[in-house]
Design a protein that fits this description.
3 domains, 20 strands, 46% helix, 696 residues, alpha+beta, 5-stranded mixed sheet, 25 helices
Length: 696
């Protein structure tokens, strides 16, 4: 949004990984329409409004979808609450991706249903626009799942196959402005080499986590600091409420033909979730054979389907709660399941995990109590309306307890706090970069302050850049281990000099290794001959790297190495102060460098454009310690010139003798092609809309 405000397209992020694509990184979601709130209300309040609107819109959309299918107000309200406050929808709103995408699923279904009821094609005409919202929302897996639900429902409901392919296809092509740059980055990234998925068993959940569908905190909760479950809490929760479990089970056997197509869609995705999210022979095949699309993310995220399935089945169940005996027996069965879960946990819990057992016991009491309340409602002789009201109260209370425990609010003024050490770095970093130890800042957070770093976190950052990190951080090149984190732990690494790191942020620690403002110095070992403490404030320290190399530098001596050979050469204590490694021979005579090569100065540094002024005594190679990536072009004195890969993954150009103006410009063909296809579909839809009006 800041880039848009400066009249530029958000194509490149210069602040992490020594520069990395921004638009192509799907999670940046620059073209998601609701971002307009940040343009109007500013980043903090605009973002907050998006977060707060998500549950409201999701609930309203789902309510309208259920009403259109003939369900009553109370039943539709119950379904909307479950959809909004369950599982992934409830535990991921602050990321403004998962829920922002999945909340459009009901709109897809509404448009399809309206077309089936009226046979007016205008409803299908809106499908591509909603699909664009979904694809531009910033997260591949929820987008894939959202389209899958809409597509399956459309086929199941009887829409002509060619027609649904046409409109869904137009929607996907409309998303080309996001999809084509992302596809280009995917093929350049570490995504297929990242060990993160394998380290967590691809997110395939053990069967014991089925218990969390009844008791979400069976394995503790990170909020209370006692979580001991598999992976992260928010990555493995599918809880939709105790009432939803009861009603969904009852709805599956409901014989209401009027709701059969919607129910079958919900049931299909419920089964698909349980099969694909949990560890079993079939789900393992997905990752063994790398099934396209669905094998690129955690299997546990299939639980997102539960929000749709359980909410739909809950509403259908609420429409048939007249048979007290059936429902009472069902609730008693679930209570029995909780008791069995308690006994199983007692048997499986190792003796040395007494504390965890106490957590489990305590956290089983609430769902057991809720099940008891549900039993009392069904066993009572209350009128149907009162029963519905009481069940809605239990649904809302249970899910609000689940949701608000996990999601706190922060004061908006925290966004405007001035942190002295960050203010110091902003004032002194100049054209250089900063680095940080693991205790001082989480990855990427320096971007908020406008600071630049060679490190970062992203599942789609350049594999070539990851190799450069591997050489210096892991002592060699290991292509099988290129994680999504590029973080520095070797403070003697020459990489920090090569990438222009002038300042390092650290924290004070005492002799026990605990962060403490009374600590004697940084918690990591820094070479005092290389690093000097230049700022201290409470627990923060800033150290200056005295051996840093300038961000731009002139060379006349070079070696030629392509592919992995460049990194192997670097690993052998290569002296990058005297020589540069290029991927092909430049039009420069390789000779020893002199002491007075000339001058270089960065005169403008914007996300998509860097301007450097040079004055050199003879033709030379100008090096810029920014990441090389397709789409960058270079001009010297207005004339196009070749960008060489320097040190495997950085940039260099040849400059003539005398004064020159060098421009690096990023405007990739992938963006141009994507934008052209998106605009073409918009134009085509405009023509189609005109024709539909003519036929009305």
């Amino acid at each position: 949004m800041d880039t848009f405000r400066h009249g530029q397209f958000p194509l490149w992020n210069p602040l992490s990984f020594s520069g990395t694509p921004l638009l192509a990184n799907w999670q940046s979601a620059p073209f998601y329409p609701l971002n307009i709130l940040m343009m109007v209300f500013g980043n903090v309040w605009g973002w907050s409004l998006m977060v707060m609107m998500e549950p409201f819109l999701a609930g309203v959309f789902f309510y309208l979808m259920l009403r259109l299918h003939g369900l009553g107000k109370s039943e539709s309200l119950g379904g909307g609450i479950v959809f909004t406050l369950s599982g992934f929808m409830a535990t991921n709103p602050e990321s403004n991706t998962t829920g922002q995408i999945f909340m459009w699923v009901p709109i897809l279904i509404i448009l399809i249903k309206k077309y089936l009821l009226t046979k007016k094609e205008i409803y299908l005409w809106f499908l591509p626009w909603v699909i664009f919202y979904i694809l531009s929302g910033g997260f591949f897996q929820p987008a894939l799942y959202a389209l899958a639900v809409g597509f399956v429902y459309g086929l199941w409901s009887g829409i002509n196959f060619k027609k649904i392919i046409l409109y869904f296809g137009l929607g996907i092509i409309m998303g080309s402005i996001q999809l084509i740059p992302t596809f280009e980055l995917l093929n350049q990234s570490i995504r297929y080499l990242d060990p993160n998925l394998a380290n967590y068993n691809f997110g395939l959940m053990p069967a014991k986590l089925l218990l969390t569908l009844l008791a979400p905190d069976f394995f503790g909760n990170p909020v209370t600091g006692n979580y001991f479950g598999f992976m992260g809490y928010q990555e493995t929760t599918g809880y939709a409420g105790m009432v939803a479990v009861v009603l969904a089970l009852g709805a599956i056997f409901n014989k209401n033909k009027r709701l059969s197509k919607l129910k079958i869609t919900a049931f299909v995705f419920l089964v698909a979730t349980l099969v694909l999210a949990f560890d079993n022979p079939l789900s393992r095949l997905v990752y063994k054979y790398r099934v396209p699309l669905i094998s690129t993310g955690y299997a546990s995220r299939n639980l997102l389907f539960l929000s749709f399935s359980m909410a739909t089945l809950t509403a259908i169940g609420l429409s048939d709660i007249k048979n007290n005996k059936k429902w009472s027996i069902l609730v008693l069965g679930i209570m029995g399941g909780l008791v069995i879960g308690y006994i199983v946990s007692l048997k499986l819990m190792p003796p040395d995990m007494t504390t965890n057992y106490k957590v489990t016991l305590r956290n089983l009491m609430i769902p057991t109590g809720i099940a008891g309340l549900i039993y009392l409602v069904f066993a009572s002789n209350f009128k149907l309306k009162i029963k519905l009201f009481l069940l809605l109260l239990v649904i809302g209370g249970d899910l609000l307890r689940f949701t608000t425990k996990f999601l706190p609010f922060s004061k908006a003024e925290f966004a405007d706090l001035k942190i002295p050490v960050m203010e110091f770095l902003k004032e002194h970093d100049g054209d250089y970069r900063i680095e940080k130890d693991k205790a001082s800042l989480p990855p990427n957070t320096w971007m908020y302050f406008g600071l630049s770093s060679p490190s970062g976190y992203d599942p789609l950052f350049s594999s070539e850049y990851a190799k450069l990190y591997s050489v210096y951080e892991r002592g060699g090149l290991n292509e099988q281990m290129l994680p999504r984190y590029a973080e520095t732990e070797n403070w003697d690494s020459p990489l920090l000099d090569l990438l222009g790191v002038k300042y390092v942020l650290s924290t004070k620690k005492d002799k026990f290794g605990v962060i403490n403002k009374e600590g004697s110095g940084p918690g990591y070992k820094f070479n005092k001959d290389r690093y000097t403490e230049v700022f201290t404030d409470n627990i923060s320290l800033a150290l200056e790297n005295k051996t840093v190399m300038p961000r731009v530098k002139l060379y006349t001596q070079y070696d030629i190495a392509t592919g992995n050979d460049a990194y192997i050469l670097l690993a052998n204590k290569y002296d990058f102060w005297k020589k540069i490694i290029l991927n092909k021979v430049p039009d420069v005579v390789s000779e020893s460098m002199t002491t007075d090569m000339g001058e270089t100065k960065i005169v403008s540094y914007e996300p998509n454009k860097v301007i450097i002024r040079t004055r050199v005594n003879k033709k030379a190679i100008l090096f810029l310690s920014d990441t090389y990536y397709p789409g960058w072009i270079a001009k010297v004195n207005g004339q196009d010139t070749t960008i060489y890969k320097a040190f495997g993954t950085l940039r260099a150009v040849v400059v003539p003798a005398g004064e020159s103006l060098v421009e690096f410009i990023y405007f990739p063909n992938s963006f141009v092609l994507g934008a052209a296809l998106t605009l073409s579909v918009i134009g085509l839809l405009g023509i189609l809309r005109w024709r539909l009006k003519q036929n009305e």
